[in-house]
Design brief:
The strands form eleven sheets. Strands 2, 3, 4, 8, 11, 14, 15, 16, 18, 21, 24 and 26 form a twelve-stranded mixed sheet that branches. The radius of gyration is 38 Å and the shape is elongated. A hairpin with a 5-residue loop joins strand 46 (820-821) and strand 47 (827-828). The chain has 927 residues and is of the alpha+beta class. The protein has 18 helices and 47 strands. Helix 8 (674-686) packs antiparallel against helix 13 (799-815), helix 8 (674-686) runs antiparallel to helix 17 (880-900) and helix 16 (856-869) packs antiparallel against helix 17 (880-900). The chain folds into five domains: 1-28 and 189-361, Jelly Rolls; 31-181, Sandwich (Jelly Rolls); 366-382 and 393-503, Alpha-Beta Horseshoe (Leucine-rich repeat, LRR (right-handed beta-alpha superhelix)); 567-654, Phosphorylase Kinase, domain 1 (2-Layer Sandwich); 661-688 and 723-904, Transferase(Phosphotransferase), domain 1 (Orthogonal Bundle), CATH 1.10.510.10. 21% of the residues lie in helices and 24% in strands. The structure holds 2-acetamido-2-deoxy-beta-D-glucopyranose (4 copies). One 2-acetamido-2-deoxy-beta-D-glucopyranose (NAG) is lined by residues 289, 291, 343.
Length: 927
């Protein structure tokens, strides 16, 4: 049996350092950094057994707590083990140590648990150097210390050593030490070195600094089949020896007891792919007779490595491999074999083996580091914000998300609930890759800065629950309205246009109507409005000389180029009269009020004058005003302002020129191709928005999610994948979340370029503010036809109810039929589809206006998916993931048909949108 080199580096033997080493010489500690972790700040001492000068680690780390071990350890171990620093909070806790760039260091981290916490439970955690995993710290005994050495040349001026909590106990550390080494020692062809084993043969003593100028720790190594030999003479290094193995280590050695057998030992690799460097030091320590010789070869796995060599009396020579040792079978058996003319068996004094590890010099982008450090200082952030912000990549600073660049950049900053005070820091502007900024729930004051609008990467800003003041920057609102940015500013009581929960509309008890464009009266109104608006837009485009309507001034009088969005505010009746030129252009009439065309500067608006006779309540008016005044999102209809004056109540909206979704799907001349429909469906299911399909298709994402939410069910699949829709914003961007409660395709309006916006918030509800509820018990409001029948009978909601709803939407997309057809005895779209499918001709199912312009396999497949979704038994319905996958297959089929026949590839239908609706009897003057 071959003696296995265990990993003694991990097991400091109890008592082995007890022998007080009397130092013959005071050794040079130049360049040493010796941190006693947990030592009180600013204290230091000279360790008695080694003479090493330790200092407190407090200046190198800002987290963690100190703990002393019981006095029992003071009799056994060196002083740096008597206390430790532990990290009960935070996943990452990092030391930041300044070192000399380009110097080769032996870096050592040491750990002695010693039941410091009284739990008698050995923790396990990970140790990182910057981005790179140094190793896992794993104990076997409460009373044994372990340490880890690496030899590494940092190419930076400081080095970050991080302890990472992996949920297997609290990380802690006893000592952290740095020892400079000559750059000519321990060279590799690539990579750094991690100590696997360092063995001193023929002794039972441990030696380190005081004896070893580099402070290598030499552990004793003996074996029953070996004989120890030693000398009391000094063993000098040979000329030009650079490894400086101490004399005391070299003065003992092992030889095989059976002098005819080789001396053998081996190690087992951590991983088969690991590579190693081995260092063997030999010195003859037996005075040989004239007729004696000691000559041997060193073999690895039977292959010659060094030799023949004949150690010189009292003179050390270190042999090492110039390139890494690697065995594909993971076998590393060293044998020292005497040559034939040797009279003595082989001998070895000292042995080291290191594993090659790669320690990356990766650092977060310097500019971003400087900025985030400034932000940290500005706000006094007191989190785990130490060392490199983005590294290790798996454990960045809490609140940060970084990208994967070669010098990682910060793309998300979450400083919510961090007790921030003062203004929004201008440093943030310099985080040029930032996409998400969350500063909510702090005490920030001052204005919302203009620079936020000029950060092109920024997509989401959350400023809720602060004390921000003034108007929102117009440029920022512009970006919100063109959908390039989501902004939430709820609960900033002094911010213009962002109302706290109930400070917006005056509290008046009066009953009247909210005839939101697309709600009551429904489709007809919408169609009419859309037609008129379209027509007017055309006229306007022809005649460039549109006159300017007198502009109502903003209360705090900003400059003229304030955009329309800034004036989300209360208007007076006389302003409304001017805006609409005394209500000259009614563009629609619902059951409850009239809608007029108006202008603010050159921007068209829809002015809804609310009829006091309507059944809608004043509360609903309030609800809508409050909601729209405090949320900004590209997928919500912009409320420009409102009128709340004596007997006059009104809402002023942006124009929605293309009508609503129901229209586009079924009744308008706009014909969505089969490919369009599949993309819509996939997008609705999955939320993947490419530039090109975003606008039209976010419509259905909104709709589906709305349905989902109406069912009061937290559908994780959907809410995760349907990002950035108006509804998602209502639910997750607003706190408390808002439920729309009146989903209809007619409540989803389309802008000129088919951007979808949610409208009619008259029924919307906020959740109770205590955050305790994830659903509400309330009468389900909304449009029948989408509800899972199983939910009706069982009253139990599952995610399969959402799948059902999605199936209904999918059927609408495929067939362009109403969910419930009044013309046909209220037949539901599912019944209808079932009947048509039974006839076996796909053309009877698909929207006939497509005139067969689709791949029939693709069409059949999509119908199958829809029908599976609406199975009456929820367990037969697919999951949303399956739906997405299947729909993608459908799209692929359709795409390949189009590729084969490129002439089919036309999307002109939307551009050549023509309206063939009878215009109202009045005829607007061209201006
Ligand atoms: C070497 O010489 C000594 C006497 O000096 C003798 O006792 C010994 O047997 C010799 N050994 C061998 C192997 O010849
Ligand atoms: C011993 O034998 C080896 C070859 O096996 C030879 O190279 C070496 O010179 C010899 N040494 C002595 C001291 O005779
Ligand atoms: C807001 O922050 C405070 C501490 O600053 C915290 O206690 C509270 O839970 C936070 N509220 C929310 C809704 O996050
Ligand atoms: C908010 O800011 C205003 C000044 O703009 C100040 O008077 C008020 O005390 C602040 N409120 C809080 C809660 O800090």
């Amino acid at each position: 049996m071959i003696m296995e080199i265990l990993r003694p580096l991990l097991f400091g033997l109890l008592g082995c350092l007890a022998a007080v080493q009397i130092l013959v010489l005071a050794q040079d500690q130049t360049g040493f950094i010796s941190l006693d972790c947990g030592l009180p700040e600013n204290s230091s001492y000279e360790e008695l057994t080694t003479g090493i000068n330790y200092i407190s680690d407090a200046a190198y780390i800002s987290t963690g707590e100190s703990q002393d071990l019981t006095s029992k350890y003071k009799n056994i171990y060196e002083r740096q083990f008597w206390n430790l620093r532990y990290f009960s909070t935070g996943t990452r806790n990092c030391y930041n140590v300044s070192i000399n760039r380009g110097t080769k260091y032996l870096i050592r981290a040491s750990f002695l648990y010693g039941n410091y916490d009284g739990f008698n439970r050995l923790p396990k955690f990970n140790l990182y150097v910057g981005q790179s995993l140094w190793g896992s710290v794993e104990f076997t005994e409460v009373d044994l210390y372990l340490w880890k050495d690496i030899i590494h040349i940092p190419l930076t001026d400081n080095i970050y050593i991080c302890l990472i909590n992996i949920n297997q106990g609290t990380p802690f550390i006893s000592a952290l030490e740095f020892r400079p080494l000559p750059n000519t020692t321990y060279t590799t062809t690539g990579g750094s070195l991690s100590l696997y084993s360092r063995a001193n043969f023929g002794t039972d003593q441990t030696y380190r600094f005081g004896y070893d100028v580099f402070d290598r720790i030499w552990l004793p190594f003996t074996y029953k089949k070996w004989t120890n030999v030693s000398t009391s003479n000094t063993v000098d290094p040979t000329n030009h020896a650079i490894y400086e193995v101490p004399s005391i280590v070299m003065s003992t050695a092992a030889t095989p007891t059976n002098s005819s057998s080789p001396l053998e030992f081996k190690w087992n690799p951590d991983e088969v792919t690991s590579q190693y460097y081995a260092y063997m030091s030999f010195a003859e320590i037996v005075k040989l007779q004239a007729n004696q010789t000691r000559v041997f070869n060193v073999n690895l796995n039977g292959q010659h490595l060094f030799g023949p060599l004949s150690p010189i009396y009292l003179s050390t020579k270190t042999f090492y491999s110039e390139t890494a040792l690697y065995d594909a079978n993971g076998q590393y058996e060293i044998s020292l074999v005497s040559t034939e003319n040797s009279t003595l068996p082989p001998l070895i004094n000292a042995f080291e083996v290191y594993k090659v590890i790669n320690i990356s010099d990766l650092r977060t982008d310097t500019a971003d580091v400087n900025v985030i450090m400034s932000i940290k200082l500005t706000y006094g952030v007191n989190k785990d914000w130490q060392a490199d912000p983005c590294l290790p990549k798996a454990y960045p600073w809490s609140g940060l998300i970084c990208n994967n660049d070669t010098a990682p950049r910060i793309i998300s900053l979450d400083l919510s609930s961090s007790d921030l005070t003062g203004e929004i820091s201008p440093y943030i502007f310099n985080l040029s890759m930032l996409q998400t900024l969350d500063l909510s729930n702090n005490s920030l004051s001052g204005k919302v800065p203009d620079f936020l609008a000029n950060m092109p990467s920024l997509k989401v800003i959350k400023l809720d629950k602060n004390n921000l003041t003034g108007p929102l920057p117009p440029e920022l609102l512009k970006r919100v309205n063109n959908n390039s940015l989501t902004l939430s500013v709820e609960d900033n009581p002094n911010l213009d246009g962002a109302c706290a929960s109930d400070s917006c509309a005056e509290k008046k008890k009066k009953s009247f109507i909210v005839p939101v464009v697309a709600s009551v009266g429904g489709l007809l109104v919408v169609l009419t409005v859309a037609a008129i608006i379209f027509w007017i837009v055309k006229l306007r485009n022809k005649s460039q000389d549109h006159s300017t309507v007198p502009v109502p001034r903003v209360k705090d009088t900003k400059s003229n180029n304030d955009s329309l969005e800034v004036r989300r505010r209360q208007f007076t009746y006389s302003e409304i009269v001017r805006m609409t030129e005394n209500f000259a252009r009614p563009v629609g009439e619902g059951g409850s009020g009239r809608v007029y065309l108006g202008h603010i500067e050159n921007v068209q608006v829809a002015v809804k004058m609310l009829s006091p006779l309507s059944a809608h309540s004043y509360q609903q008016f309030q609800t809508e005003v409050k909601l729209l005044m405090r949320v900004y999102h590209g997928n919500l209809t912009s409320l420009v302002g409102y009128l709340n004056e004596k007997d006059h109540f009104g809402l002023i909206y942006e124009y929605m020129t293309k009508g609503n979704l129901a229209q586009v799907l079924s009744e308008s001349p706009v014909l969505l191709t089969w490919e369009d429909r599949l993309r819509i469906a996939i997008d609705a299911a999955q939320g993947e928005k490419t530039q090109q399909n975003y606008r039209v298709y976010s419509v259905l994402s909104t709709n589906t999610l709305l349905l989902t939410f109406l069912l009061h069910h937290k559908n994780e699949i959907l809410s995760q994948i349907l990002k950035n829709t108006g509804l998602e914003y209502l639910h997750h961007g607003c706190k408390p979340p808002i439920v729309h409660r009146d989903v209809k395709t007619t409540n989803i309006l389309l802008t000129d370029n088919f951007q979808a916006k949610l409208a009619d918030f008259g029924l919307s509800k906020s959740f109770p503010n205590d955050g305790s509820k994830t659903h509400m018990s309330t009468t389900v409001a909304g449009t029948p036809g989408y509800f899972d029948p199983e939910y009706y009978t069982s009253n139990r909601l599952t995610e399969k109810s959402d799948v059902y709803s999605f199936g209904v939407v999918l059927l609408e997309i495929i067939t362009c039929r109403p969910v419930i057809s009044r013309a046909q005895k209220n037949v539901h779209i599912i019944q209808w589809a079932t009947t048509m499918i039974a006839q076996g001709d796909i053309r009877n199912v698909i929207d006939p206006r497509l005139k067969g312009e689709f791949d029939s396999n693709s069409a059949w497949k999509s119908v199958e998916i829809a029908m599976a979704c609406v199975s009456s038994n929820s367990s037969s319905r697919p999951t949303m993931n399956q739906v997405v996958t299947e729909l993608k297959n459908c799209l692929a089929m359709e795409m390949s048909r189009k590729t084969e026949n490129p002439s089919l590839n036309s999307r002109d239908s939307i551009e050549t949108f023509s309206i063939s609706i009878n215009l109202p009897t009045y005829s607007p003057e061209a201006r």
